[in-house]
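Review form for a predicted model. The reviewer records the input and the model, then writes brief findings.
Reviewer: anonymous (R2)
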Amino acid sequence: MGQSINGKSILETVPTTDSAANQNVADVTGNKNDTTGGTSLVSISNQIGITCLEAVSSHLVPLADDPDNVRMSDVIGNKTDTIAGDSLVSLVKGVGCVPVDLYTGKNVTATLFVSPNGDNSDGLSWATAFTTIQGALAAASTDVNECTRIVIGINTGANHYDIDITGDPTYTGNYVIEGTHRTWQKIMNTHASATSILKFTGYVELKDLNFNLGGSGTDPDVNGVIITKGAFRVDCCQFTGENLGSAKTALHLDGATLLKHGKVIGCTFRGEVTKSHMTGILIDNTCCSKFRDCDWHECLTAVQIVGADSDINYFDCLDIGDCTTGFDIDAGNEHHFDDINLHDNGTNFDCVTTDHNFNNINVEINTYLSPINNIVGIEITGGSPGYGSDTEIVALNAIGNPFKVIGYYLEPEADENTLIRLSADAGTSHFTEAIFAAKKGKATGSGIATDFIFNANTRISGSVYPKTNGKYVRIWLEIQEF
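Model under review:
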C-alpha cells in the first residue's frame, strides 16, 4: 500500500467520487468512504491490509444491479445479480471461501489485532486493535468449530505484553497467535499470584513470540505455556528463564488426555547460568509428535519425557548445550533421535526406558576400553569346529547411557586366521563379523565394529571361529558412551 506511481501514492491515483446508486468503479475500488453504506475496496484495504477476505468482502457494498450486467458492481459487488449469477464477492461468500486468511493461508473464522498503539475498541484493525493479548483472547470465539487468528504487533524495549492474571490464565477456544519475530513481542505474567503465562485447552498455534518466565526484580517466577490438546503447533518461539530463582517449566505439553501429532519447530529455550531451574519442554503423555530445529542452553533439563503413553516422538536437528541434563527419558517407548548436537552438559541422556532409535548423535566425550582397567580382557573360546558359544562381553545393565561399540582389540591364542562376530541380542543376529590374524599373545586393534548407537543397558556378546578347534581369543571393546 506504500508504493507510488509518478510521485503519487497508489491511494492518490484511484477514484474518490461517490455515486448514489453505488454502481461506479469508485464505489467498488475507490479511495473513499461510501456515503450510502460501507467502504470501497481500497479504503478497507488501507485499514486492514487485505489480510482477511471476510473483512474485505463484508464491506464491498454496491447495491444496484444493471440490466445488461456491464457495470463494475455486477462483477465484484456485494449483491445478488437479478439477471443471472452472482457478483464475485457474493459468490465467494456463498461457497464458503470467506474464512480463509490470505496472509497465512489458514482457515480462520475471524482475525483480531493487538497493538500498544490501538484504541482498544474492537480489535478488527490495527487502528482499533486491543492493547492486551488477554483482551483479544476474551473477545475471540470459544466455539469448538471456529478458529480465531490473533495478530500481535511489536512491543519492544522495556515494554512488554503483560497477561497480569492470577493462576493459570486459561483459554478454551481455537487460536492461531502470531507475532513478527520472536524477540519483538515479549509476553509475561507479572501478577503476584500467577503460576503460568498462558494455558490453552483447545487447538493452538503459537508463532514468532517471546515468552519470559519472569523472576526479575519484583516479577514472580512463573511457568511458561501449558497446552492440553493435541495437534499443537509452536513455531519459532523463544522461552526465556534467565532470571528464574526456582524450578519452572517453559513449555508443558500436558496430556491428562493423550496428546497426538503436535509440532515444536524452530524454538529457543534459554535458562539461567546456574543451570538449576528451568525445564525447557515437559512432554507428558504426548505421542507421535515432532520436535525439530530447536536449541536449549543453561537449562536444568532440556527435554523431560514422562507419562506411560509418551511413545514414538521424533527429535531431529537439535542443539543442547550447557544444561545439567539433556534428555531425561522417564517414560515412553520408541523415540527417535536424529542429528542431535550435545555439548558441555552434565548428562546427555538419562534413560529409564531403553528401546529408542539413535542416529547421528554428536557429543564431546572420550572413549574407553571395556572391560575397564583390565589387561586380561574377556576370553571367548571357539567351537570344535566352528563358532563357539555366545559369550558375554558387556553385561546387561552395565552401561547406563546410550553407547557405541566403535572398535575392538583382539589377542589370539594361536597364530592363525580367526572369525569373530559381535551381537546385541544374545547371538540371534550380529552387528559385525570379521576375520583377523595376529601374533599369539599380542593384543592388536582389529577393526571398526559399528556406527549404530545402542540403548542404555544393552548386553553385548560375541563368538569366535578359530582355524584350530577350541582355540580362544581375548577381546576388549572400545566404547563411546553418550
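Findings: The mean pLDDT is 83.
Further findings: The longest strand covers residues 248-260.
Recommendation: see findings above.
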